[in-house]
Structures are given as structure tokens and as C-alpha cells.
Amino acid sequence: MMMSEDAPKPTEKEMQKLMSRPLIKAAALLIKNTLDKRFGLTWHAAVGEGFGFDITCQNRYLIYVFYGSVGVLCYKC
Fold it and tell me: Could you say which DSSP state residue 60 is in?
């Protein structure tokens, strides 16, 4: 199973709803829980604006995308 093909793909409208400040934490938790259920435990998710990262993760288990100005980082370690 290819993770990139099976990962949830939210629409732009769904992302706009999730990106209000109080819901960013909830969005990251929802993404993390979805990936944990679908691909096994130990996933981490960060959602927000203006952040960088330096991580160690398993090969082929890193997703870093932008929806407008909002970055979404998911990785398995």
C-alpha cells in the first residue's frame, strides 16, 4: 500500500475550516490519529504557519505540504 496514494486528501474548503487558530491543534490530532489507524502507530503531525523542522524519521514516511500559507508536516519515527 502506497502511503501517498492512500493518505487523506482534504479539500481546500475543509482546510479553511480547520485552520482557524483554535482548531489547528485539533487538525493536527485528527491527522495523527488517522495516520496511526491507517499505517500503524508512532506518527507525528504538526500544522501551522511559519515553522521549520529538523527531524529524524523512517525512510519513505515523511509528508510536508502547504495548503495556502498553512504547512502540514507528518512523519513516522
Answer: T
- pLDDT tens, per residue, the chain with 77 residues: 455 666 666 666 776 666 666 678 888 999 999 999 999 999 999 998 888 889 888 788 999 999 888 899 999 98
Domains and CATH numbers, the chain: 6-76 (3.30.740.10)
Give the CA dihedral 35, 37, 41, 43, nearest 10 degrees.
20
Q: Which residues pair with 46 in a beta bridge?
A: 73
The type of residue at 27 is A
Sign of the Cα torsion 6, 47, 63, 67 reads positive
